[in-house]
Amino acid sequence: xxxxxxxxxxxxxxxxxxxxxxxxxxxxxxxxxxxxxxxxxxxxxxxxxxxxxxxxxxxxxxxxxxxxxxxxxxxxxxxxxxxxxxxxxxxxxxxxxxxxxxxxxxxxxxxxxxxxxxxxxxxxxxxxxxxxxxxxxxxxxxxxxxxxxxxxxxxxxxxxxxxxxxxxxxxxxxxxxxxxxxxxxxxxxxxxxxxxxxxxxxxxxxxxxxxxxxxxxxxxxxxxxxxxxxxxxxxxxxx
Length: 239
Ligand code: SF4
Description:
By secondary structure, this protein is of the alpha/beta class.
């Protein structure tokens, strides 16, 4: 299988099948915590890295060969190796996956392209969007997410606010906390203000547990995450 991964069982989504919209890691960020490691470059060009039809063919064949698991699936998740919204076929793919599976569709995105109305138009077709936002000041964002030079944090935040206004499905905003970088009280206060403007349905607090792209990346202790959760309010949960 080239585009399918899983299925993966999670508390958040139940049994979900993952689809990658690229063959290799293609991303406009180079996060220090990336589980795929660093490929040493970022890519901002949107194009049809893989055709929707190719992914759909593989999906149909997987479903034929796994009838029992297909019955148990709750979600199809577009994510995979890199940033799925870099593939211009994402809106078309969501339509086709829905036709083939009849399942709910989630998009996991790093949020960088949500300032672009064409990107939002594509992802609006999903049922659930899980965008990430790790920092609300440019310096901290640069340190954690190491973006392509064309990416601006204020455009990401404005894109998330616009998405909330346009999207009828659920938004679960994910924040990855790295010990000693974005877990200080001042940043949490600023983050809280920005999150209130975005108004997601849930705020998912995460911290790296797997191997990361860089060596010196440490998770935030559970007790501290609990404190952050209290500050961010009822919508926040530790995942
Ligand atoms: S956005 Fe995701 S795929 Fe891209 S570098 Fe960050 S963690 Fe890795």
